Amino acid sequence: MLKSERGQAVTETILVSWIVLLFLAATFQIFLVNESIHRSVTAVYQSLFTSGFETNGGGGSDCDGKVGLCRYRYARVDWTQTDFPETRVPVVPLFQTPSTPGVVFLHRQTGGTKQTVLSAGTYYPILDGTPPSP
Fold first, then answer.
1. What are the tens digits of pLDDT across the range 64-88?
2. What does the alpha-carbon distance between residue 82 and residue 87 come to, in Å, rounded to a whole number?
3. DSSP code at position 72
4. pLDDT by residue (tens digit) across 32-63?
5. At residue 83, what are phi and psi to the nearest 5 degrees?
6. Is the pTM of this model over 0.70?
7. For the chain, what are the domain ranges?
8. For residues 128 and 26, what is the distance between their CA atoms, to the nearest angstrom?
9. DSSP sequence for 12-50
């Protein structure tokens, strides 16, 4: 083996090592994003169904025995960073730049906080002829 061939082999080995390292870092970053999304959706739905249960009359709310009070309500959850720290996505150091912080938060693309809404309460009786109240 000539000296120039040994240098080429070292260069190729370093290049392949960087490609493998980049692939593993990208795979780990995708795992972190997936895990953060799963944890945040789980926490939001837990909060959403808890407030929906209370709106539907569970836990001794105003709806017990009073059908009119339970109509047309919504359970709504805002995905704020203080209420749901699960929306925090850590960034792998290989992908951090001076403009990219070490942590990115899940947010709406158009600005503001994400919201999830669940219809709760009872539907108005169809056969009694009364229109739904707003």
1. 555 555 555 677 888 888 888 888 8
2. 10
3. T
4. 999 998 999 899 888 888 877 776 655 555 55
5. -80, -35
6. no
7. 3-120
8. 60
9. HHHHHHHHHHHHHHHHHHHHHHHHHHHHHHHHHHHHHHH
